[in-house]
Amino acid sequence: MGDEEVRRVADALAAVEQIADREERIKAQSKIMAAQAERNKDWSKERDALIRELWDGGEGLSYRQIAARLEIKLATVQAVFRGKGSGTTRPRKSNGEGQADG
Questions:
Q1: Percent of the chain whose pLDDT exceeds 70
Q2: Phi, psi (degrees; rounded to nearest 5) at 91
Q3: How far apart are CA 26 and CA 49, in angstroms?
Q4: How confident is the model at residue 2 (pLDDT cuts 50, 70, 90)?
Q5: 3-class DSSP string for 45-100
Q6: Is the entire prediction scored with pTM above 0.90?
Q7: Angle 17-86-38 from CA coordinates, rounded to 5°
Q8: What 3-state DSSP class applies to 100?
Q9: 38, 45 contact by CB (below 8 A)
C-alpha cells in the first residue's frame, strides 16, 4: 500500500465528516470506529511481528533504525519489547510521586 491508497482513505474519511445530517454523520462515524477497532488488533499484531523480525533478537536493526524504517515513533518500537501498548499510553501516577499503580 502506498501513499496513493493512504490519501484515498483519508479523503473518504474527510467525506464522512462532511455529511450534512448530524445523525447520519454520527452513524457513519460510529460504524467506521467499530470496524477500525477490530482491525487495529490485527494491524498491531502484524506491525509487532515485523518489528521483532527486523530486530532479529538483537542481531538486526536497532530500535531507532526500525522506527525510522517503518516511519513510526521510537516509543512504539520500545513498547513492543515491553509488552505494553503504544508509547502514548502511560501508567497512572499514584500518590503524586511518579510511581505507577501496580
A1: 80
A2: -65, 150
A3: 34
A4: confident
A5: HHHHHHHHHHHHHHCCCCHHHHHHHHCCCHHHHHHHHHCCCCCCCCCCEECCCCEE
A6: no
A7: 55
A8: strand
A9: no
